[in-house]
Amino acid sequence: MSGAVLRRSTLADRATGLVPFVAIILAWVIAPYLADYPSYVLPSIGQVAERTWTGLSDGSLLEHVLGSLYRLAIGFVVGNAIAIPLGIAIASNRHVADLLRPLLTFLQSIAGIAWVPLAIIWFGIGMGAVVFVIANTIFFSAIYNTVVGVESIPNILYRAVRSQGARGWQVFTELVLPGALVQIILGLRTSMAYGWRALVAGEMIAGTNGLGYMTVEAVQWYQTDTIIMGMIVIGLLWLILDRLLFVSLERATVARWGLIQR
Amino acid sequence: MGQARPDAPALSPQSVAWRLGRRGARIAKGALGLVLFFVAWQVSVPLVGLEPYFYPSPIDVWHAFVDLLAKGILPVYLADSVGRYLAGVGLGTVIGVAAGLGIGLVRPLARMLSPLINFLFAIVEVAWIPIFVIWWGYGLTTILVALVYVVFFPLLYNTLLGVRTVPQVYVNAVRSLGASRLQVLTQVILPAALPNIIAGFRVGAGFAFRGLIFAEIVAAKSGIGYLIFEAAAHHQTARTIVGMIVMGLLWLFLDNFYLKPFERATVERWGQTTAAERRE
């Protein structure tokens, strides 16, 4: 449907899409000739390229990237592995759901970033605190989505499945799981968006390596070239994660089942 | 998923009473859940036997709350945070919608700028804060720019999407009835794009709230984020938890009393609902 309106991007479209990037790079190159400012305010594109080259060749950039991705992966897996089963269990029982819903809503509204100071007290600066904050952020986002997913299954379907003779476990595998799956899968992407922010923010405050740590550490020494490199890497990594992982996951599952409207 | 449940009871007085009763029971149970949580927390403190700075009890948190109120710290910080939030979200919304409409109405421009917008959107606001600090130092400007940035992109993105998905037939139809370009904008494009704009606003407002807390942790000398961070640095953990709870309540308050009613009021007023009603 939407394909007709937002037509597929052609090769020409992609080429025009490059124009603003080229314009920005040109402006960046010309800027020092037009205005007089210290290079720590905005280093030249050559400095950033050089910095990136050093980072790549001595392996320090890769180390930060892998460190960040490693923490993100642990936080993502741990957070979801606890949240999804727990969410299903909570939502399957109406009384438990009623009991816990306001508490969950409240805990979810305390943004992950606000847990960072407490995480530092509990785990000390470093890996533990950052992973805790990511897992925590992803947990509350995922559990919320799972509960909503299970609760969005219409009652009539339960009756239909039961009247066909399904009992207990079968209701779970035939109805609850597939019924909630759409919301859970869509929730994975949202929770990753929050988790990604929590990662960068957590590393900035409580990290000992990683992309967030690298950029915030550079502020102290006015190494703006490192900061800009970090920002570009953060942007590219997110695009890769979001487009390659989640968009294709959605395409392979939810969109294929015809359950998503764009 | 948003459709009404087909088995919802018909609207008779009994069913309304039944629903209210059910709602009351739900609220009571939810309150019970919260009470149980705090009781369990309080009971666990002597059992765990950790230092109060490591694991404070709810009573410690309450004392810290009363203390912060009595010293007048909390009201000032809360006002600072809310003020920054409103200013940042307001400014970001205006700029985002204006840019979205401006770019969206010129199709070649929209096509040209989309990749850049996607890329800038992907550099999360958190990652901008270090360079903002270099440019503007620790303080209000950095926080405000970060907030505007967070709100700007979801709004720009969604406004663009909304404007670009308006079927050209509608525009042609209204034009052929003699509408001016301005009328097309206010009568067709804005109402059609509004659900998207509102959706973008809610996303932006949510991210902005988290962004505010982070920006205050890094770059402020007052505010709820500063309270949470600074108290923890001095091992006044009960104060940190007060800050976290106030922050959660503030978000729930904003979301339930401003964002959701705003969404309902605007979408129902200008959105698809009225269009459908008028046709009848």
Describe this structure in words.
The complex is a heterodimer of chains A (about 260) and B (about 280). Chain A is built from eleven helices and no strands. By secondary structure, chain A is mainly alpha-helical. Chain A has one domain: MetI-like fold (Orthogonal Bundle), CATH 1.10.3720. Chain A is elongated. Chain B is an all-alpha fold and about 280 residues long. Chain B folds into two domains: about 35 residues; about 220 residues, MetI-like fold. Chain B contains eleven helices and no strands. In chain B, helix 3 packs parallel to helix 6. Chain B starts with 12 loop residues before the first helix and ends with a helix. Classes of the chains: A mainly alpha (about 260), B mainly alpha (about 280). At the A-B interface, helix 2, helix 5, helix 6, helix 9 and helix 10 of A face helix 1, helix 4, helix 5, helix 8 and helix 9 of B.
CATH fold name of the largest domain in chain B, please? MetI-like fold
- Can you write the helix and strand succession of chain A as a string? HHHHHHHHHHH
Structural class of chain A: mainly alpha
Broad structural category of chain B: mainly alpha
Regarding quaternary structure, what we see is heterodimer
Number of domains of chain A: 1
Order of helices and strands of chain B: HHHHHHHHHHH
Question: Can you give the helix content of chain B as a percent range?
Answer: over 70%
The share of residues in extended strands of chain B comes to under 5%
Largest sheet properties of chain B: none
Overall 3D form of chain A: elongated
CATH top level class name of chain A:
Mainly Alpha
Question: Kindly state the mean pLDDT of chain A as a whole number?
Answer: 85
Q: Nearest-angstrom radius of gyration of chain B?
A: 24 Å
Number of helices of chain A: 11
Please work out how many helical segments of chain B DSSP would assign: 11
CATH architecture of chain A: Orthogonal Bundle
Largest interface: A-B, 70 and 68 residues
Global morphology of chain B: globular
